[in-house]
Amino acid sequence: MGHSLERTDRTWEGDPFKKFDFYIPKYNLYLDVTGTSFTKSESIKRAHMLQLRGAIIAILGIKVSVAEILAAKGYRTAFANVAEREGEIRFMPYSRLKVLEKNGRAIIAQPEEIEFAKGERTYILTRWTDWLKPNQFLRWLKLK
Fold first, then answer.
1. CATH number, residue 95
2. Number of domains, the chain
3. Listing from the earlier edge strand, what are the strands of the sheet with 123-127?
4. Judging by DSSP bridges, how do beta strands 29-36 and 76-83 pair with one another?
5. Per residue in 85-111, pLDDT tens?
6. Where are the beta strands (DSSP E) in 41-114?
7. Which residues form the D212 catalytic domain (predicted)?
8. Is the pLDDT of residue 44 over 80?
C-alpha cells in the first residue's frame, strides 16, 4: 500500500528533487523555507532550556539529509527562515551549516530534548545570528 504525499515528503522515500520548496535555475539552487511563529524571546527561552544562548532556528534533520544528497549531485542547497512576527528572513547555505556543525555551533537535538519536536524527528539547532542576512546570502550566491 502507498503512503500519502504528506508522509512521503517527510521521509527518505520519493524523489529528493521534490523535497525542497523551490529550485532557482539561475543559481542551480534548491531552497527550502522553514517558518516559525515563535518570537525571538520565545526562541531564546527554548534555547535556554537546551543550554544554548540566543534565539535558535531548528531545521528538520531529514531536510538536512536531502540537502546533502542534492549537494552530492552538484546542486547548491540552502534553507531560508522566515521569522513571521519580526518580518525578517535569514538564509543558511548547506555548506555553511556543515561548517557550523563541525565547529560545534550547530547541534543535533533528539525529539525528547525539544518540546516542539513531534514524533521521532531529529532537528539540527542553529543560532539565529549564524544565519545570513539577505545581502550576505546574495553575495554567497554570486561567489560560486
1. 3.40.1350
2. 1
3. 56-60, 123-127, 107-109
4. parallel
5. 677 899 999 999 999 999 988 888 765
6. 56-60, 76-83, 88-93, 107-109
7. 22-136
8. no
